Amino acid sequence: MTVSRTICLGFLTVIAVGTILLMMPFATSDGTWNDPIVALFTSTSAVCVTGLIVVDTGTDFSFWGQLFILLLLQIGGLGYMTTTTFLILLLGKKFDLTQKRAIQKALDRPGMSGSSYIIRSIIATTLIFEITGIFLLLPTFVRDSGWQQGTWLAIFHSISAWNNAGFSLFTDSLVKYQSSTLLIFTISALIIFGGIGYQVILEMFFWLRDRINKKREKLVFSLDFKVATSTTIVLLILGTIAFSLVELRNSAKFGVLDYYDQILVALFQSVSTRTAGFNSIDIAKMTNAGLFIMIAFMFIGASPGGTGGGIKTTTLRVLTSCTKSILLGKQEVILYERKVPNTLILKAVGVLIGSVTTVIISTILIALTDPTLSFIQVLFEVVSAFATVGLSTGITASLSGFGKVILIITMYIGRVGVLLLMSSLLGDPRPTQVHYPEENLLVG
Prior knowledge:
This protein is 65% helix and 1% strand. The chain is an all-alpha fold. It has one domain (3-426). A two-stranded antiparallel sheet has the order 1-2. Strand 1 and strand 2 (338-339) form a beta hairpin.
């Protein structure tokens, strides 16, 4: 039982338990046994923090069903190993070497030291942001739904947004709140900070603490911090501009909004598209150009260590920097005056090839099982599932049984990661002392 297999089987166990709970009569609004495929799909979507649904979460599930979904997406957002390790800490037990290696691999950390500290920091950060989000969302939801229902809506949407899950208790997601500045900015902030990675947030905290205490020693930001923050900011700006320009003349959406609401909608979709899956406009009414832009941003995804999916912002920067180095005739890949190791470049290439292969295979299979759907709809659904985003053009519920199973597998692969899954299937690589002679090859 390798570390990779432990993590992969852990997610499968949580999905299985969630499926059983969501099948129970007390989990459905009508008090009947739930369809096993519906329960499995919903459980997988929650644990994989995707947000794709085949039934309406707010009307088809009872309070207990919604609570189970909330717990599943919280576990999925934190990660199986983080949740398990936190429970071990609560019991007062110490980590063994295997658990430390599992935490290192699950969080993609360079070393095993300080595992208990990083887990406590992750839990504390999660609680602070989620509770803050609840209080900021309360005024809007309480005003519209009363104290009891409004409080539950604030709790559910704050946790869902922080974990980049995209689950909503409203049939149209957040479309009716597209002009609510407080709600849109609160949800957007939770999505951004949840997807940017815990390490980045901790470095921000230490930097602010040093500035407040007026320490002379300046904190040197890590390469992870610089790449994640700069890439995220650039993608947010590019996404807002792209959605505004492409959908500006779309009378079904942007055409009926005033200028401020157009910017607000474009900004929110730029934030949500890469990671979360909330929508403040009807995705089905978007143009093909707008949908394809969404596919590209979904495929990129969030940052490592965060709650989002995709190939990650750091992978994108390593690959683009590698391309830049080749075009400039350089032999090294440089990021912020730091040389990127060859092993990291190989890993980025592996992530890209594995991700593209998964998307291609899933798209082909669903195109075969559901031939009546258009190509752009199928590709959009598959990328949304793989990148654990949760946006949909509205075809999820109408997919055939085989089509839903393919999406379930795609969501699972996207959550655990292509390389981690392959490592669990093939086993850990064995070191070798064999080196082969080098020879040139025509490329490009």
